[in-house]
Specification:
Elements lengths: L4 H10 L5 H15 L9 H9 L6 H13 L3 H13 L5 H14 L5 H18 L4 H12 L9 H10 L3 H30 L9 H26 L5 H18 L5 H34 L2 H11 L5 H17 L2 H18 L4 H15 L7 H10 L3 H24 L1 H10 L5
Helix pairs in contact: 1-2, 2-13, 3-13, 4-12, 4-13, 5-6, 5-11, 6-7, 6-8, 6-10, 7-8, 7-18, 8-18, 8-19, 9-16, 9-17, 10-17, 10-19, 10-20, 11-12, 13-16, 14-16, 15-16, 15-17, 16-17, 17-19, 19-20
Length: about 425
């Protein structure tokens, strides 16, 4: 059990500004020595390579690059205008447009923060100008941004699969229905609040204008269809689909005439930086996981939980609480690296499905980003829109409430998550 304090010591030292990967790696190696397991250190390089030398992980930098290229390719305006032509005419229309735009973005970037920043810069001012309070516009933007990592492609899901050694394809497919349900509950909440606060309707476009906006949005809309269509029907692996997504993103930028050599270079630099930070974190986690296996920490934790009566739905509730709080305070990769190697194996050993657990954990972590007092999505929206943080946080509470209800349903009704991958033969 000498390795058990690693997570808590690393989390404490993280508050000092130290790099998490360095902390986990150093603490793990020190624990090998403290536990008189130094002779096993010779196998550490092999364990690191084994953990990151996976074909599916290659999709991570490619999906990051596709998202970075799309963010610079001028698709925001095209998707926003198309969403407005669909939903703006409804009561509270711009709120519905906000959610629908997040659904479109989810199939491209898969990042809650990127979604929140982009929409805060474009749609929040438009909503405020149309008569919505700045806090409400910021709140629905933050709430809808969590759809990004749930609907595939999702960098968070790939990271989880690398830690748990489960199927990226199955988890991607499992995320489709929960992501769409998240959009539905936000549509319903916005509709209710729109009638309660008498929010205005937006523009109503005629058929020729709708057709023009649709045609312009096609290059952006086709990318998620290509990605998921190839994966679902077995034409491409997630890694191959990610490579196709990069090519489609570059072509979309050329169609929108906003892709330049300098923009592509910046996208490549950003991708290299993000990918490097993720892979070094995976390497550090591999050392920790190796020590945890030697010390049989997951088995000991499972026995402890069993002795406390924390099995089944009680353990799922515990996981929900831990990952929801972790999402409030930590970056998502950090939270995954700290808690998944310890908390997920006992759940799987007790009969939980790793795909279902993956969706529950992803939803928890993303909802933590819109949970005060430290929700990252709330902070991003506040910074970009110049709206007071606490006014956004208060306005986001009704949306957070319905999202937590959906989280509960997803937690205790696994079939919602597993139905689609099971029907397609990816889950037994």
């Amino acid at each position: 059990m000498a390795a058990l304090p690693i997570v808590f010591v690393s989390a404490a030292l993280l508050m000092t500004g130290a790099v998490l990967a360095h902390l986990i790696g150093a603490a793990s190696i020190a624990s090998f020595i403290a536990a008189d397991r130094a002779r096993f250190l010779a196998a550490v390089p092999q364990r690191i390579i084994a953990n990151i030398d996976l074909f599916s992980i290659m999709s991570m930098p490619l999906f990051i690059l596709a998202g970075e290229v799309m963010n610079r390719a001028g698709v925001t305006e095209a998707l926003l205008n198309f969403a407005m032509s669909i939903a703006a005419r409804l009561k509270g229309g711009l709120g519905h447009v906000n959610v629908l735009t997040s659904v479109f973005f989810a199939g491209i970037s898969g990042s809650a923060v990127a979604d929140a920043a982009s929409i805060s810069n474009t749609l929040v001012p438009a909503m405020h100008k149309s008569g919505y309070s700045l806090s409400y516009a910021g709140a629905i933007t933050a709430a809808s941004s969590v759809i990004g990592p749930i609907i595939p492609p999702s960098i968070i899901m790939i990271f989880y699969c690398a830690l748990v050694q489960t199927s990226v394809t199955a988890l991607f497919i499992a995320g489709i229905l929960p992501g769409l349900l998240m959009a539905v509950v936000l549509f319903l909440a916005n509709g209710y609040l729109a009638h309660k606060h008498d929010h205005p309707r937006g523009e109503s476009v005629d058929l020729p204008e709708f057709s023009r906006r649709f045609v312009r949005a096609v290059p952006a809309l086709v990318i998620p269809l290509v990605i998921m269509g190839g994966i679902i029907f077995g034409v491409t692996t997630p890694t191959e689909a990610a490579a196709v997504a990069v090519l489609c993103a570059i072509l979309a930028g050329m169609v929108y005439r906003s892709m330049s050599v300098s923009a592509l270079y910046e996208a490549l630099k950003r991708t290299a930086s993000l990918s490097g930070s993720i892979f070094i974190l995976l390497a550090a986690v591999a050392i920790f996981s190796y020590l945890a296996g030697i010390e049989q920490i997951p088995l000991a934790l499972a026995r402890l939980l069993d002795s406390l009566g924390l099995d089944g739905w009680k353990y799922l509730l515990l996981l929900n609480g831990i990952f929801l709080v972790a999402g409030m305070f930590l970056e998502v990769p950090v939270a995954l690296a700290l808690f998944v190697p310890l908390l997920v194996p006992p759940a799987i050993a007790s009969g939980a499905d790793p795909i279902h657990l993956g969706i529950v954990i992803v939803v928890n972590l993303t909802l933590g980003m819109v949970t005060p007092p430290f929700g990252a999505a709330l902070l991003v929206v506040s910074a970009v829109s110049n709206a007071p943080y606490w006014s956004i946080a208060r306005a986001a509470l009704p949306f957070l409430a319905v999202q937590l209800v959906l989280l509960g349903v997803l937690t205790f009704v696994p079939e919602i998550t597993l139905a689609l991958p099971r029907a397609l033969g990816y889950v037994n």
